[in-house]
DNA sequence: ATTTAAATATGATATTTGTCATGATTTACT
DNA sequence: AGTAAATCATGACAAATATCATATTTAAAT
């Protein structure tokens, strides 16, 4: 099994603030795990006994709403940590995590994380900074949800996925999402998401073959009202 | 001027994790300030040079959306801290803070807060815990915005204000919000908020004389669909 | 106290979004 | 390969919400 000290992934998250010794210790008790596309990593309401460091792949964080629909609250990629919020606040998870790709993650037990949080202020501060960023992003999502149309939100979602998760050589978005996933990000009915995507296609803003979506006119997409 | 070490307010926020010495030091460089109802404490995009500890009163945190409407993202009360997110991430404020009451706040310079964040892991951990709570609440707001009707959101807002900010002796909500404020919490047009409040009144769920709103049937309000 | 401005209220109507139905296409499975 | 089950697509209609217009009431200012 590879060692945390040498892992390049940690450069992208708060683990980089740990000392060599701390990393060696964590490396000794972490477990590596492969997760298949569609698999649930943890459920809403589950007690998380640790934090996941995402080495590869992408997952969605969802919350089931009263009307029985999943809302995608955030997407987590390679390099991100998963489950810090629950571990820090010692609460059950408020979200479900589901793999959108095949994934590879390392699981670090809660006790190790908490030990370092209490001992290493740099690490704690880094986790804090990360959470501050998450919080700002969440504020932005709230405002978008409250004030923008489904059309605008969907356009922005496509741009966001394009910019954050990249594209294949042919220009198509590298993360494959179902129309239902798009609806659950945007907070609309699946049919509405489908309809708006069809409109974007007709208007030449995107092209789509099945789940393969490609931005054709990003400037026009940005201008969508 | 009163001293932080003796201030009871700090029991309600992360400052309680500071040592006596740290509190004395902070006490020496804090400034107390009174803010009148309606006054802006800081604006969106402003550089915050410190954190506010709310000793009395309530304020709203808003973000201006592209369509020119303010969205109320969170409300902050006596006992809460204000501005931690921006200070931690060393970014300009992503929100505007406006007093809804006459307020009394203590301003603590950024340098002091950051010094303690780097030295006192208990304090940092406490701030982290607080932010984790804010983040969970923000996730909940996202889901509500995305999946619930204006009617439901408004009903829940009234209950939230009732439970979190309390009532006057006659049972009316102690925080006076304009109909526009309600609209900006719920993310709807002012006219829609007014209309729904009128409906609630007709249905006997609330009574309202001007801005004075009183819950008449909280169970029915909880059941609103 | 009177005037002026702002906030509240309500109707009429347009627009957006959701729901239900139904068919086509794609994917998964044996 | 062939079948079943998802997923995608689109129409028709219903419901929710926004917008515009215009009173009415309330608060603020002189």
TrEMBL record, chains A, B:
Alphabetical list of PROSITE patterns matching this protein: CNMP_BINDING_3, HTH_CRP_2
Domain Cyclic nucleotide-binding, chain residue ranges per copy: 14-134
Keywords, comma-separated and alphabetical: DNA-binding, Transcription, Transcription regulation
Keyword Transcription: yes
Gene3D superfamilies per the UniProt record, alphabetical: Jelly Rolls, Winged helix-like DNA-binding domain superfamily/Winged helix DNA-binding domain
Domain HTH crp-type: 148-219
InterPro entries (UniProt xref): cNMP-bd_dom, cNMP-bd_dom_sf, Env_Response_Regulators, HTH_CRP, RmlC-like_jellyroll, WH-like_DNA-bd_sf, WH_DNA-bd_sf
A GO term, aspect molecular function: DNA binding
Gene Ontology annotations for the cellular component aspect, listed alphabetically: cytosol
Pfam families: cNMP_binding, HTH_Crp_2
Protein name: Crp/Fnr family transcriptional regulator
């Amino acid at each position: 099994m590879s060692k945390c000290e040498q892992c390049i992934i940690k450069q992208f998250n708060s683990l980089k603030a740990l000392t060599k010794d701390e990393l060696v210790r964590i490396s000794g008790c972490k477990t590596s795990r492969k997760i298949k596309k569609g698999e649930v990593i943890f459920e809403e309401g589950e007690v998380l006994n640790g934090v996941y460091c995402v080495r590869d792949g992408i997952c969605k964080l969802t919350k089931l709403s009263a009307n029985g629909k999943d809302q995608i609250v955030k997407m987590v990629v390679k390099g991100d940590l998963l489950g810090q919020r629950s571990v820090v606040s010692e609460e059950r998870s408020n979200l479900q995590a589901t793999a959108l790709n095949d994934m590879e993650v390392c699981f670090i037990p809660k006790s190790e994380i908490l030990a370092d949080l209490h001992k290493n202020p740099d690490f704690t501060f880094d986790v804090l900074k990360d959470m501050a960023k998450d919080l700002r992003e969440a504020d932005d999502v709230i405002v978008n949800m409250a004030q923008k149309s489904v059309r605008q939100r969907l356009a922005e979602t496509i741009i966001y996925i394009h910019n954050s998760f990249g594209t294949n050589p042919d220009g198509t978005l590298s993360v494959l999402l179902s129309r239902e996933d798009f609806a659950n990000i945007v907070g609309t009915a699946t049919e509405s998401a489908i309809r708006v995507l069809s409109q974007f296609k007709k208007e030449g803003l995107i092209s789509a073959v099945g789940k393969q979506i490609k931005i054709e006119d990003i400037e026009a997409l940005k201008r969508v009202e």
